[in-house]
């Protein structure tokens, strides 16, 4: 029993990413952070403050001033540049955290909470906490600079991966605690499909059939499956739990995202497929969830790094540490 | 006074027990199954639930060999902080019932407006959420069990507030556009599931506001 447990826990350890992979991950994640920050915020009140606006009483409406937001966005370019280079992370990450949390808090303080960008802000928060700790501790590690940077980068990704897994597990736990009969009650799910399609219709008064898919060719491929599921659930609501229970279980067991690169990668791709199908059916996009799963689990960074390495180029702190 | 041998052994066994904190969390979930109405997103949690989450967090320190401590800690943090940015317990679609509803905005002639186009980006979801939050408060205030039990009159104030908020959050060009078609009206459509079929009721007028609001 003890041996089996040790074997299982041995799977859950940080992956040994190369410096090139870490660089690709940082560049892609920097692009995600950049897209999370809106160009303009037209919110002049905090009708229902949440997070720092509630706990610390901070008024984030100053972000509605275009001049201030522009200035902060320019500063963000600098911070993201430092982040991509992997330098001065203890300066870059706190700034990235400040701007993502400020904008997110203001947007979510309008009595209309959205759940798209939290995952990005949490990933930034975790990386920020780790790099601040690492900056404070690094003089004690005794490792050469290149190896230390590589180790810190791997650990930052490991903690980010744990954050992403935690975000999925908590969604399943919320469903479990909210009513206790989520799977059985999901026979009423067709109502939610009708509701979201109708709400979507009243956004543009464009019939759903004429609306273009959210993800181009992927939407075209998934659309027939989503349509079939939707029709089956509408005509036989009793079948809805059969379609929805796997989604709930996928969220509940998201800890397997952390079980090594192969299992984690396969699990992430399944979650991405789950998000894409929901996007087709209900127009709930969750693009940032797809992005972070893609960046930190799917192996995109690995293949990009392979491509870069075939060009015989190596980031400086990769040399001597491999 | 020396510790009794039995207690010592029991404590040692407990210390060696793997994944204490995740096991404790599972027990917590089983005990609270269906007991927490997570739909009022930022309401404070019951103190006993928070205390148990704190115990789970403390147990984490004694979980030797657990390599995913950060995951468990962040899970506990998200459960405890609820919908307070950047944390979230992701309450959307957490419970289903045989009733739901949607809302839309219409112009003075009662014809629906393409809200996202007219307001330069505000979607109907942004209209429904504050409206839903306010009718939830009204329901509590009136001591009614379900929001569907509220009359159109009882929903009026929430409807007017939601419309006013949409107007306030519009860009100047969108505000001018809305003013031309004012008064804007909010309609509410109930959807029920009766004997495995979806039953959509006719739109019900809830509220209207003149623009700019007086």
Secondary structure layout plus pairing:
The complex is a heterodimer of chains A (322) and B (214).
Chain A: H1 2-11, H2 19-36, H3 52-55, H4 66-85, H5 89-108, H6 118-141, H7 145-178, H8 182-185, H9 189-204, H10 217-235, H11 240-252, H12 260-282, H13 287-296, H14 300-310
Chain B: H1 5-16, H2 20-32, H3 47-61, H4 69-81, E1 99-106, H5 115-118, H6 124-142, H7 152-168, H8 172-181, E2 184-194, E3 197-200, E4 204-209
Antiparallel strand pairs in B: 1-2, 2-3, 2-4
Can you give a write-up of this model?
- The complex is a heterodimer of chains A (322) and B (214).
- Chain A is mainly alpha-helical and 322 residues long.
- Chain A contains 14 helices and no strands.
- In chain A, helix 7 (145-178) crosses helix 13 (287-296).
- Chain A is globular and about 65 Å long.
- Chain A starts with a helix and ends in a 12-residue tail after the last helix.
- With 214 residues, chain B is of the alpha+beta class.
- In chain B, strands 1, 2, 3 and 4 form a four-stranded antiparallel beta sheet that branches.
- The N and C termini of chain B lie far apart (78 Å).
- In chain B, strand 2 and strand 3 form a beta hairpin.
- Chain B has two domains: 20-34 and 46-84, no CATH class; 99-209, no CATH class.
- The interface between A and B is large, with 78 and 73 residues.
